[in-house]
Amino acid sequence: MLVASSRVVLLAVCMTVILSSACLAQKAPSPAPPPPPLPCDAFKKNEDQDWVAKQDMTVPGPNGPVQIKAGTVVNDDLQDELDDRCN
């Protein structure tokens, strides 16, 4: 009788390990691909050499989309990106 109950316990432990392993093996969803770069011709440099939006637009931001109005000087991160890509 003791042998039979030991086998049941061993089987239960094995099943738990197998099921736990299967759950852990599932992958987390892959992150969304980065948005495409904004077109250089959507911006221009003003007399202070700051990049300014030529038209109203929505750009990706760290906390979600950000709306930019035409004539607005863009933030420092976007300034740097445009300086690197569009000069």
Would you give an account of this structure?
There is one protein chain. This protein is of the alpha+beta class and 87 residues long. The chain is 40% helix and 18% strand. It has helices at 2-25, 76-86; strands spanning 43-45, 51-53, 57-61, 64-68. The chain is elongated. The relative contact order is 0.13. The model has no long low-confidence stretch (mean pLDDT 79).
Question: What's the quick description here?
Answer:
With 87 residues, the protein is an alpha+beta fold.
Q: What portion of the residues fall into strands of 2 or more residues?
A: 15-25%
Largest sheet: 2 strands, antiparallel
**Which strands sit side by side, in order, in the main sheet?**
1-2
Rg (CA only): 28 Å
> How much helical structure, as a percent, in the residues?
40-55%
From the structure provided, what is the oligomeric state, counting identical versus distinct chains? Answer: single chain
Determine the N-to-C terminus distance.
Answer: 83 Å
Spans of at least 5 consecutive residues with low confidence:
none
Overall, the morphology is: elongated
Mean pLDDT: 79
Q: Total number of β-strand segments?
A: 4
| Count of alpha/pi helices | 2
Helix and strand pattern: HEEEEH
Which structural class should the secondary elements be placed in?
Answer: alpha+beta
